[in-house]
Amino acid sequence: VKSLISQTFNDLEILLVNNGSTDNSLDVCQKLVEKDSRIKIIKIAEKGVSVASNKGLEAASGKYISFVDADDWIDSNVCELFANLNAEHDYELFCYSAQYHKKKKTTISYLFNKDIELLSQNQKEELQIKVFAPQAPIFSYKMNTRFAGSAWGKFYKREILLKNNLRFSTETIISEDVLFNTLSLDYFHRIGYTKQCFYHYEQSEYSAQNRYRPNSDKYFIFIIEKIQEWLRNTAKDQRFVDAANCLFVHYLFGILKEDLFHRDNPNTIQQKKMLLDYILFKDKINDILNKVNYKYFSVSEIILVLLLQHKKFQIIAFFFKWI
Q: Of 31, 93, 154, 274, whose Cβ has the fewest other Cβ atoms within 10 Å?
């Protein structure tokens, strides 16, 4: 919140969404309101990132909206830079780069290798594909993280989101931002990008990617079905299909890492095998595994895909024991 208050562009509305916190977060928010009239608190009983994001989006009064996760921060001049560029270009979507902080290591992630005042149609399609597969081999510049699909690091024109009823899905607690951007990007045409890194993403051992996420298969399969529906409805070409299948396979990897073989999973080996069999024998999952483009995967990932195709549970279990 300090990084929002200290923005060099002052004409801001800062919305803090308290969705069922059980600590002293609400008291802290109320003290912040007393110090800065631009801050507003939205209190909701429901929990979940999607619910909170939607409430903020609907309650906002600004022309543009940007999301900052609770444990992250932005540089103090990003809003001013956007305002100055936007005065010339009237953006519908504007993206900027990010730094990932993990202990003492910092990784910089860029969407493109240069600033772009207005993305061409080809560059927009590249951005859409990078939401699915940041390492897509069809591009000369590949991303080293998956932040293209994140809601943060972007300024969205709020009118377009509201007009087209674009919201975060409350049916999933996983990858809701990827689905949001997938469905939203078709509606944005004046898109800009700066390579400057203004967003700071804090990676900790308590982040969602490292937590035990039981029943993650139902959420991942929900996202898969929605994206497949989007692919059909928009008649996207093979580039999008291959990239989406790459994403879907990584979702399978996520089920294995964050659920099935997570250290906090209390199930027996036999119970884990039964769940993996249940997932792998689904026609939808079989179809994805049998249609993957191997150019989208590393050697170790290809080996894992082959193990999944042939349902080699013991070897897969051994594989995840050591990662």
A: 31
Could you tell me the two tokens for 263?
């250290």
Distance CA 180, CA 118 (A): 22
**Whole-number Å distance between alpha carbons of 193 and 272:** 44
Q: How far apart are CA 180 and CA 186, in angstroms?
A: 11
What number of other Cβ atoms are within 10 A of residue 170's Cβ? Answer: 14
d(C-alpha 123, C-alpha 111), whole Å: 10
How many angstroms separate the CA atoms of 66 and 56, rounded?
10
Residue with tokens 């923005």: 7
The answer to whether 62 and 158 are in contact (CB under 8 A) is: yes
Phi, psi angle pair for 44, to nearest 5°: -135, 150
Classify residue 1 as exposed, middle or buried by CB count within 10 Å of its CB (0-12, 13-18, 19+). Answer: middle
Measured between alpha carbons, how far is 85 from 224 in angstroms, rounded to an integer?
A: 36
Q: Is residue 193 within 8 Å of residue 111, measured between CB atoms?
A: yes
pLDDT in tens, 124-182: 999 999 999 999 999 999 999 999 999 999 999 999 999 999 999 999 999 999 999 99
User: How many Å is the Cα radius of gyration of the chain?
Assistant: 20
Integer Cα distance of 93 and 185 in angstroms: 9
**What are φ and ψ of residue 25, in 5° steps?**
-60, -45
